[in-house]
Automatic annotation (TrEMBL):
Top-rank taxon: Eukaryota
Boundaries of every RNase H type-1 domain copy: 89-207
Record protein name field: RNase H type-1 domain-containing protein
InterPro entries with a match to the protein in the record: RNase_H-like, RNase_H-like_dom_plant, RNaseH-like_sf, RNaseH_domain, RNaseH_sf
Length: 251
């Protein structure tokens, strides 16, 4: 009750702690029920990230928002990169009943054109490890197709936090160290967290990985099952383009 009635500011001063606490408690219960009762349940979004997203949506719906309209638009759909850059979106999918994980990602250009896509199965692991594998695979593929100015987007906030710090401060994890080795190559890579709505194509590609095994698959052109997601994101981008052209400048 102390937590529920607490009015301390949270989420950058936009939400009271009581609201955040209640949403995360509800999500913990919902996740537990899904894990126990639904053997096909796949966790594609962490509880913390999903809670933040729901709180922002409630804030917007009930008109108690202090977030600029252009920021809300940016949260709601994929935004094309600036000229001379590519955008790499990565994601992971982990089966709750068996921890079988797969990863996927997509590279697109300044006009939203498809450059490259990938997916593969990575074994049994946690959501965080799977998301890090997605980042490592994405960087490898981006380098291989000669992309040298890359905006990497993930919908996992913890991944962004890890990549903002030197790997030695995180227990010298071999996976994290490998990612940092790629980031130190002769190119420019910006990493940032985005809401799940901005990562739909990568999410769909990650879900395909369980069917492709360890070797995975690469896609020089969009696979048929992804085309509808691309079309949806393109329509969303076109409908918000007058606002969004100002919000994705890497400078």
């Amino acid at each position: 009750m102390d937590n529920l009635s607490c009015t301390d500011a949270w989420m950058g001063g936009r939400m009271e702690w009581g609201a955040c606490f209640s949403v995360w408690c509800w999500l913990l219960w919902k996740f537990r029920c899904s894990r126990v009762l639904d053997e096909d349940f796949i966790e594609r979004e962490g509880i913390y990230d999903r809670g933040c997203r729901l709180l922002v949506e409630c804030e917007s719906t009930f008109g108690v928002t202090v977030v600029p309209v252009r920021e809300l638009h940016r949260r709601q759909c994929w935004v094309r990169p600036a000229r001379g850059w590519v955008k790499l979106n990565v994601d992971a999918a982990v089966g709750v009943s068996d921890d079988r994980a797969s990863v996927g990602g997509v590279i697109r250009g300044a006009d939203g054109e498809w450059i490259f896509g990938f997916t593969r199965f990575v074994g049994r692991c946690t959501v965080l490890l799977a998301e890090l594998w997605a980042v490592l695979d994405g960087l490898r593929h981006a380098w291989a197709v000669n992309c040298r100015r890359v905006k990497l987007e993930t919908d996992n906030k913890e991944v962004e936090r890890i990549l903002e710090h030197d790997s030695e401060s995180l227990g010298a994890s071999a996976l994290v160290m490998a990612i940092h080795e790629w980031l130190r190559k002769d190119w420019v890579v910006f990493v940032r967290h985005v809401p799940r709505e901005c990562n739909g194509v990568a999410d769909s590609l990650a879900a395909l990985g369980r069917d492709y095994g360890w070797q995975g698959s690469t896609f020089p052109a969009p696979p048929r099952g992804i085309v509808h997601r691309l079309d949806d994101e393109r329509q969303q981008w076109l409908s918000t383009r007058p606002v969004q052209r100002f919000v994705d400048d890497p400078g």
